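Support request, please re-run this one:
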Amino acid sequence: MLKLDAIDLRLLELLQNDSKLNIKEVAAQLNMTKTPIYERIKRYEREGIIEKYVAIVNREAVSRSMIVFCSVSLESQKLDEIKKFSDAIRKIPEVMECYLMGGVNDFLLKVAVSDLNAYHQFSSGKLAALPNVGQIKSTFVLNEIKRSTVFPLS
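Re-run finished. Output below.
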């Protein structure tokens, strides 16, 4: 694992907030020249600290205004069954995030759909249709209070 100094942490913070900043702008904010900034960024990419660069889409502008959290319990928690479910979930585009959980439910999914009817189609037509799904509990987001893609570094 790469040891990160204060400059690394600040640079990663800047890039998380706006990955379109150019090297010159970043260097100016960090009081450095362009070359060491460029080299650090390339090192982050090589080391896997920066996985990829993305555009964050306004979901309401593309008609995916409903967010639902689904707790899923499997009928069997055997390792191969968990893997099969995980592999199937990765292929479903409505699922934005999926976590294997410890506790009452086996998985927690964050799902984006256009409306309640679309969620019904998703939950009964795709999710419940997967083998080994025992129970699905849904929680609907009424108002998004905070959403961030910035991983806290300090």
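The longest strand covers residues 66-74. The chain has two domains: 6-47, 59-140.
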